[in-house]
Amino acid sequence: MSSEDYGAMTVAELKDALRAKGLPVSGRKAELVERLLAMNSAANSDTTSITPPLSESPAAGAAAPIPTPMGTIEVDCGSCGQRLSLPASHTGRFQCPSCGTEQDMAVASPSKQDPMEALSDQYASARTLAMRLNVAGIAVGVLAILVFMGGLGQLGPDPENCTEIEMDGEMVMSCSGGGFLENPEALNYVGFACCLLVPIAIILPVVAQAVRPPPLVTHQPVHAQHSVAGSTDTEAVVEWDSPLQRLVGVVSLLFGGSLVLATVVLAIGVVVLFVLALMALGSMG
Fold first, then answer.
1. Does residue 16 belong to any structural domain of this protein?
2. Which residue stretches of the chain have pLDDT < 50?
3. Which terminus of the chain is less hemmed in, N or C, by CB atoms within 10 Å?
C-alpha cells in the first residue's frame, strides 16, 4: 500500500493495522502512517535483494550507512508484565495493548528466552522464603522462652504478705500467696508463651519445609578437548540450599522440636500436680 492509501484510512484503522503487525499504536496519524510505510519497506527489503555491480564502489571517504536492526524483540510490559513483540529497530515510547500504558523501551525489561533461567529464579526465591520462615521461627521461639521465664519470675510471695513468727524458739518469716491464683499476671505471661508463641514457633519451620523446593538439576554444555565433531557434552549442575540456609533450617527444626518436647513435659507436669492436689483435698475431707 502507498502513503496515499494509508492517508485515506482513519486513525482507528491505522491502529488496527499496526496491532496486526505487532507494532506500537501510539502517536499521531502521520507517525502511524510512517510506521506502516517503514514496515512495508523493511518487508520488501527482506524479500528483494539487489546486488550492485562490482565496478561500482562507494567513493573514498564516504561514510558507510548505519545498519538498521531487523527482526523483532520480546519485552515485558513494566506495568502489567505482558510479553510484547516489537521491531528491533523501534526506539522511544510504545503502548501496551493489554493495559494501555505508554512507556519507554528502557522501562520494559527484556523477557527471558531461557525457561530454565526463570525456573532457577523461582527456586531461588522459594529457598530465600524458606530461610526467612526458619529465622522467624527461631526468633519467635526465643521470645516464647523469654516471656515464659518472665512469667515464672513473677511467681513467689509478696514481701508485704510476709510476717515474722516464732517457731521452735526462733523467729522465722512466714509468707502467704505466691501462686498463679495470687499472681494472675504471671499466668497471663505463661499462657501467652505456651498457647500462642510456642505454636507459632513450631508452625513456621513446618511451613518453611513445605515451601522449600527440591534440588534443581540443569545441564550446561561443556567444551571438551576430545569431543566428537557434532556432539555436545553436557554437565549436570545442581542448585541447592547454601550451607547457611541448611544450617538455619536444621537449627529451626531442632529448636521447634525442643519446644514441642518442653511443652508436652510442662503439660504433663501440670496435670500431675492437679491430680495430686485433688488427691490431697480428698484425703483431707
1. no
2. 47-58, 60-61
3. C
